Amino acid sequence: MDLGIKGRVAIVTGGSRGIGRETAREFLEAGVKVMTCSRNGDQLKATCGELAKQTGGEIRGIVADMTQPGDQQRLVDETLATYGTIDILVNNAGTMYSGRFEELTEEGLQTQLDTKLFGWMRAIRTVWPIMRDKNWGRIVSLIGGAGKEPDPYMFGSGMTNSALLNMTKSLSTEFAPHNVLVNAVCPGWVATDLWKRNAGGLQKELGVGSEDEARRLASKKNALGRFGKPEELANAIAFLCSERASYITGVSLNLDGGRLKGLW
Ligand SMILES: NC(=O)c1ccc[n+]([C@@H]2O[C@H](COP(=O)([O-])OP(=O)(O)OC[C@H]3O[C@@H](n4cnc5c(N)ncnc54)[C@H](OP(=O)(O)O)[C@@H]3O)[C@@H](O)[C@H]2O)c1
């Protein structure tokens, strides 16, 4: 399918690995110019080099930290200086804050809120006037199923994610008159570094003897019986950012292989 976004400009935060990296690849293959960021400059440089070589597309990356007020503006300024405009924002940079209530610390929750709630809201604030003035824009945020279906092990992520879902719906209404579409995706378990970093904690939570067993049990909760692949997430994200999704706004699409059983 032709996504109809050749020549558009996208910011994908956290594109050095995982879902962000595959989303950047999808855009490059669709002829979209990409700006990305992460905190680790070496990994970012290597990824941008590999993706440019593999796709022949235009991609740049800068070191930026979504928890730092001011870094979002730097990212936007760099994008405008490089490509002249911004059409698409994918809020992806971040991680999961797992653990039950007794393990949750205020500092840990604050970091999660600083990264995904305040960091992403600031990113939206910086791109919004540009999209508003051109009467075209796509914003997609990677949230997570715990925002819809509370899970004691995902206490900190769940609270953050619910706020992000609320932000998505509210902004989709506010931005719609300017043809700026605001959507979210809610991944279940996806096979990335994030999963590996959480495997020990999940093993303890599920009371099993190995990470493989934890993965098997976590997979069984999904109707499809397996983890997602980063490229499967990227396909749906690129579609939501495309011309083909021109009548979709305010949705939060579950990309979880059928894990959530609720009706939304
Ligand atoms: N994988 C899953 O199962 C899953 C499930 C639900 C939701 N999600 C969400 O999906 C998104 C991507 O997850 P993933 O699995 O692809 O994770 P990942 O493999 O750990 O990649 C995360 C990316 O974000 C960057 N990043 C993290 N914190 C950042 C910060 N403060 N500022 C700038 N860049 C930052 C990382 O680079 P640096 O570390 O170098 O900064 C990396 O490029 C995250 O928001 C995550 O919460 C994932």
Output the number of helix runs.
8
Give me the side-by-side strand order of the main sheet. Answer: 3-2-1-4-5-6-7
Helix content: 40-55%
How much strand? 5-15%
Q: What's the architecture of the largest domain, going by CATH?
A: 3-Layer(aba) Sandwich
Q: What name does the CATH topology of the largest domain carry? A: Rossmann fold
Kindly provide the radius of gyration, computed on alpha-carbon positions and rounded to a whole number of angstroms. 18 Å
- Determine the N-to-C terminus distance: 27 Å
Give the uncertain stretches in residue-range form.
Answer: none
Q: Tell me how many strands there are.
A: 7
User: What is the typical, i.e. mean, pLDDT?
Assistant: 97
Q: State the CATH class of the largest domain.
A: Alpha Beta
How many domains? The number is 2
Shape call: globular
